[in-house]
Amino acid sequence: MKSLQNKKQQQAGFIYLVLAALFIASLVTCNLIANKFVEVDMGFHVFKVSAGVLPYPLTFLITDILSEMYGRKRTNQVVLAGFFSTLLVLGILYVGHSFPAIESSPVSEQDYSSVFQNSWKIIMASMAAYL
Prior knowledge:
Shape: globular
Order of helices and strands: HEEHHHH
Number of helices: 5
Structural class: mainly alpha
Strand order of the largest sheet: 1-2
Oligomer: single chain
Radius of gyration: 19 Å
């Protein structure tokens, strides 16, 4: 009996961890791809949107699932972890920008800057809305 309960707790812990990882990955991805704009054809209308909005609904779905399964407190822990993970990514992007690209780098300094130069603005705006 205790073994079955222990196994269910392990499964619940694993599901929580997977959902948390998916939430954080989706949140970070939203911010990294936000500078690209795409057209989404819904048949009745073509929407021009940031590519960052594509994984964003997944974050809401995951927080709803987490909240239903694990409660508000544990869900807020995941949300806070996502916040700090995003700040870490911002820091890593900054450090990556601080070092000049070597001549043989497949990604030039200009390309790196072009892709990530607005990331801090997007991430900070996202984090303000997030909190």
